[in-house]
Amino acid sequence: MASLVRQKKTYFVDAAGKRVPKGTPKAKKVTEESAKWYGQGVPGWPKAKRVPLATDKRVAQKMLTELVTNAERGVVGLPTANLGRGQLVEVLPAFEADMLLGLANKTRSAKKRPSPAQVALNTQRVRDVLSGCGFVTVGDLNDAAPAKVAHYLTSRTAIPRIDGGLSAQTAEFFRKAVKRFAWWLSVRKKAPVRADLFDDVPGFDAKNNRVHARRTCPPEDMAKLLTTVKESDGHYRGLLGEDRYFLYLVAFASGFRAGELAVVTPGNFALDAEPPLVILSAKQTKNGKAARQPLPLGVAGQLRTYLAGRSGTAPLWPGTWAEKPVKMLRKDLKRAGIAYRVDTPEGPRYLDFHALRHSFVSALAAAGV
After folding, report:
1. 161 vs 369, residue with greater confidence
2. How would you classify the pairing of strands 269-270 and 239-240?
3. Residue-level pLDDT at 70
4. Do 69 and 104 sit in the same domain of this protein?
5. In what order do the strands lie in the sheet with 19-20?
6. Is the pLDDT of residue 78 over 50?
7. Which residue among 130, 140, 236, 311 is least packed, with the fewest CB closer than 10 Å?
8. What is the pLDDT of residues 318-333, one digit of tens each?
């Protein structure tokens, strides 16, 4: 049963009344109650959980009663009290917490929970849409809301990214994030919002509206890049020239993404297998599926020397380089005299880190694989 309690605090003071550590000679033990009342025993809470309420007992009792009421409403599936009067941004922390637990998805088939970075990014996207469309309370998520979202996202794709614009791909991510938020409000929070409120907002054809189109890295350019990097005395976020040499080499030879390579350890390599392999577990890949990628014999031979004496569990390429791998690659491309951007009749094409993956796929296609 819910009840009000005061917290007790114990400490020690000397003869002058100054707080001192326990065990101090002649120290006096003092126990006092908190000025504020705390609530405990709310339905659905852990038995020992307490929450601060108010210093006035009558106010604290009223607050506790409201907590109990809200908890009991949640048990029977009724809407959260006062949700309609509160601001939408105030529920974003709860939305973020549920996303981390995998509880903010329409589909239940997801095998992998989103990373904290993905969750933070989706939360910020929802916050941007709420602000940009003027959605303050649940009442603003009405029948006119989809048109406002469509207009907001479309208008941002029409301006340069440097001025706050969005690519078609990023606009699509925004659209999906706000769809998820509406579903979560309706299903999880029992708010008076349609779960499919934003399902009719038109999508953005990212495939045919690429702002940042990639190009493949020809073998001669890759050889030039690798030679330059291997002879480099500089480092980038802790990665020496030799480290970057093998990072680019494995990226080109395996097709793995930057985020996947950032967690690769010596134990992921099976160089004595036929053929030699680099093996990633489901937890290490972006799609949540284990991967076994053959390596060319020449690459495997070079890796033997590089991996010699290294721990089997420590990442080969640790650090923060994977947050913006293009910055590292652009520096090395410049040293090697290789263009990062090439203008073509179809528009500019870029050689970023993910383009190494494209180059791997193109090499396989050229080989008839």
Report:
1. 161
2. unpaired
3. 67
4. no
5. 19-20, 3-13, 28-40, 50-52
6. no
7. 311
8. 888 888 888 888 898 8
346 lies in a domain?
A: yes
Dihedral angle sign, alpha carbons of residues 221, 286, 314, 294: negative
Burial bucket for residue 207 (CB in 10 Å: 0-12, 13-18, 19+)? exposed
- How many whole angstroms from its chain centre is CA 78? 31
Asked whether residue 93 is assigned to any structural domain, the reply reads: yes
User: Which structural domain, as residue segments, surrounds residue 243?
Assistant: 219-366
The phi-psi region of residue 87 (left if phi > 0; otherwise alpha if psi is between -120 and 50; otherwise beta) is beta
Establish how many alpha carbons lie within 13 A of residue 156's alpha carbon, considering only the half-sphere containing its beta carbon.
Answer: 23
Query: Do 238 and 173 lie in a common domain?
Result: no
- Rounded-to-integer distance, Cα 356 and Cα 346, Å: 20
Amino acid identity at 56: D
One domain for residues 328 and 268: yes
Q: How many domains does the chain have?
A: 3
**Residues 135, 127 contacting (CB under 8 angstroms):** no
What is the identity of the amino acid at 366? Answer: A
Q: What is the pLDDT of residues 150-165, one digit of tens each?
A: 999 999 988 877 788 8
Instruction: Say if residue 79's pLDDT is above 70.
Output: no
**φ, ψ for residue 124, nearest 5 deg:** -65, -35
Q: Are 295 and 303 in contact (CB under 8 A)?
A: yes
Q: Which amino acid appears at position 271 of this protein?
A: L
Segment 139-150, tens digit of pLDDT: 899 999 999 999
Within 8 A by CB and 6+ apart from 168, the residues are: 157, 204, 205, 206, 209, 210, 211
Let me know whether 98 and 161 are in one domain: yes
